[in-house]
UniProtKB/TrEMBL annotation:
EC class name: ligase
Catalytic reactions of this protein: tRNA(Asn) + L-asparagine + ATP = L-asparaginyl-tRNA(Asn) + AMP + diphosphate + H(+)
EC number, as in UniProt: 6.1.1.22
Keyword Nucleus attributed: no
UniProt similarity note: Belongs to the class-II aminoacyl-tRNA synthetase family.
Domain Aminoacyl-transfer RNA synthetases class-II family profile stretches: 137-455
Protein name: Asparagine--tRNA ligase
Keywords for the protein's UniProt record, in alphabetical order: Aminoacyl-tRNA synthetase, ATP-binding, Cytoplasm, Ligase, Nucleotide-binding, Protein biosynthesis
Pfam families per record: tRNA-synt_2 (PF00152), tRNA_anti-codon (PF01336)
A cellular-component GO term for this protein: cytoplasm
Length: 465
């Protein structure tokens, strides 16, 4: 007899061919039954929905089902029929069941009960098998695809920037060092400092905190580029919003000013949320039901409303006049905290907000300086529940102004001489921004902790799996 090909469960539900013989493979979520029939709920990761397998006990024998427990992997062939039970449209009347791999009920950690998210982080190697994390990681995939599709359709070029770099784009200094030196026998120069000429690259190098500086070089040749890759921050931040390793999307566009940049950011975010609502319906509905009853409403709210645009100065005035008691003080020159950003979005405007024209002291050296000498053309996009989701700016295109700013900050520009040089050779207005991918996934899934939207989170004292 000719073997039939495996069908993914998601495809069975999409177009059920009732009466046909089908072949499915997956992991047992639950099994229950009586002396006549067993009902196995099977999931293969392709959808949030389990497929019910109906197995005649007499046909297979009582002992056959002993290894078919929660977590076991099985291969089933049988006839697809309309389901009599509630909650599913189709089920399989099993003809054959093959057990690929067992899961001892005494030791398999994912038994049929509620598990805390904290516990699931401890078993990150198994948590993708839960409904929650299956949904989150499918959404991650769809969002990754949507990002590439958006920029491709708009004529942007995907530009690969280095992960190992000698520059610190943010000037923050919180970088992971990359070295092949022997820590038990570190070469020293005459002054006693580490001799990096002996290292692999012949100089001190780090993991990148941002692809922006190299991305700007791409934009100044290709016109419009975007990067999408891992970035690393060695900040000792144990918060629900920080990771040491995360993914960033960074478009850079020649001939854009701050207004073009804001338009791009708003259009991009709305496109991604619309895409999620259209292509991740079942997963978002599950997360809305289980974790955040206002999730779908909030996603639709962002699409339906124009983002408010106002200056940092206007934002500070609103916060100062609000009478609200903030944990962190508000004054002109303060680096706004998440509580301030969320107040503007959730309480005052009740819509997403784009803040612009920040004090130059709290922003990076590369931001275009305004005529007032005090502010720069930076912009932050602020979202409900999240606070800042995008940070960007029009970039300083004037060589002398850029040099003066680096001197004001006492910056060592030797590692970024090439970046400064671009302002000498055919400089042009340009702008860009960075979107933290995990922040986006937090917003779209309604999850509360950033460690729950990346498969294997990297945080202080945690590099397991």
């Amino acid at each position: 007899m000719e073997s039939i090909r495996r069908t993914k469960i998601v495809d069975l539900f999409k177009d059920p061919q009732f009466g046909s013989v089908v072949d499915v493979k997956g992991w047992v979520r639950t099994i229950r039954g009586n002396k006549y029939v067993n009902f196995i709920h099977l999931n293969d990761g392709s959808t949030i929905h389990n497929l019910q397998i109906v197995a005649d006990v007499q046909k297979f024998g009582d002992d056959f089902f002993k290894p078919v427990t929660t977590g076991a992997c099985i291969h089933v062939t049988g006839t697809l029929v309309e389901s009599q039970g509630k909650g599913q449209s189709a089920e399989i009347q099993a003809d054959t069941i093959e057990v690929y791999g067992t899961a001892d009920p005494e030791t398999y950690p994912l038994q049929k009960k509620g598990h805390s998210l904290e516990f699931l982080r401890e078993i990150a190697y198994l948590r993708p098998r839960t409904n929650t994390f299956g949904a989150i990681f499918r959404i991650r995939h769809h969002m990754s695809y949507a990002i590439h599709k958006y920029f491709n359709d708009k004529g942007f070029f995907y530009f690969h920037t280095p992960i190992v770099t000698a520059s610190d784009a943010e000037g923050a200094g919180s970088m992971f060092q990359v070295t092949t030196l022997d820590f038990n026998n570190v070469p020293r120069a005459e002054g006693g400092q580490v001799d990096y000429t002996e290292d692999f690259f012949g100089r001190q190098t780090n993991l990148t905190v941002s692809g922006q500086l190299e991305g700007e070089l791409g934009a100044m040749a290709l016109g419009a580029i975007y990067t999408f890759g891992p970035t690393f921050r060695a900040e000792n931040s144990n918060t629900p919003r920080h990771l040491a390793e995360f993914w960033m999307i960074e478009p850079e566009v020649a001939f854009y000013d701050i207004h073009d940049n804001m338009d791009l950011a708003e259009d991009f975010l709305k496109y991604l949320i619309r895409y999620a609502l259209e292509h991740c319906k079942d997963d978002i509905a599950f997360l809305n039901e289980m974790f955040d009853k206002e999730l779908i409403e909030r996603l639709n709210f962002v699409i339906a409303n124009d983002f408010v645009r106002l200056t940092y100065t206007e934002g500070v005035q609103i916060l100062e006049k609000s009478g609200h008691k903030f944990e962190f003080p508000v004054y002109w020159g303060a680096d706004l905290q998440s509580e301030h950003e969320r107040y503007l979005v959730e309480k005052h405007f009740k819509r997403p907000v784009i803040l612009t024209d920040y004090p130059k002291e709290i922003k990076s050296f590369y931001m275009k300086q305004n005529e007032d000498g005090k502010t720069v053309r930076g912009m932050d996009v602020l979202f409900p529940k999240i606070g800042e989701i995008i940070g960007g700016s029009e970039r300083e295109a004037d060589y002398d102004k850029l040099v003066n700013r680096t001197k004001e900050l006492n910056m060592n520009t030797d590692p970024i001489w090439w970046y400064m040089e671009t302002r000498k050779f055919g400089t042009a207005p340009h702008a860009g921004f960075g979107l933290g991918f995990e922040r986006l996934i937090l917003f779209i899934t309604g999850m509360a902790n950033i460690r729950d939207v990346i498969p294997f989170p990297r945080t202080p004292n945690n590099a397991e799996f």
